[in-house]
Amino acid sequence: MQPTALGAAADPAFVNRARSILRSNLFAWRALGDRNPESPASTKGIYRKFPRGIWVLGFVSMLVFGLGVLVAANVVLAMAASPWIAFLGAAFWGLHMAFTQGLLSKMIADTAPPELRGTAFGVFNLASSGALLLASVIAGSLWSAFSASATFVAGASFAALAAMGLLLYRPNPQAEGHTAKR
User: Fold this and answer.
1) In the chain, how many H helices and how many E strands?
2) Which of 112, 144, 149, 166 has its CA 20 to 30 A from that of 9?
3) Which of 62, 43, 144, 135 is nearest to 104 (CA)?
4) Which of 126, 77, 70, 76 is nearest to 100 (CA)?
5) What does pLDDT average to in each consecutive run of 10 residues of the chain (182 residues)?
6) Coil, strand, or helix at residue 37?
7) Distances, alpha carbon 139 to alpha carbons 22, 102, 133, in Å
8) In terms of Cα–Cα distance, which of 18, 44, 47 is closest to 31?
């Protein structure tokens, strides 16, 4: 195995734990802010204060854009020859998370009936964790068998394939409750 500039930052368990900590802190921040709509932590205040231009694109377009940023992150990480380039790739990865994670949560909240929202988020997180486990096994195998770069090239390929699938997907307009904006 050849040394890379990525080190422990590429460890999927480390990334998943950091994501969990951030998510729990954001939920606590939001819960405190929603008690006071004028609080900067209030989601009601955030939606009132920020321009809505970015939401005009629609969910699918935003997800495709986020996947494009993930492709860019993986390409940068595949070519990382120094820690600074690896940090740039990690910054792109963070942008991808910023563009996609909130949208996925909003789609779940909008789709699930109010009495089943907790269950819907639980099933989503269970499925995400299972996919993360499978992706980590594949990434580790590629890293061991080939190189770190092969891992990120495969990640870019999977992200590009997912983006193409979203672009080709045509929802059934007859479906009850279909509100996703393209």
Assistant:
1) 6, 0
2) 166
3) 62
4) 70
5) 46 56 51 48 44 57 90 95 92 90 86 90 93 93 94 94 88 59 50
6) coil
7) 23, 25, 10
8) 44
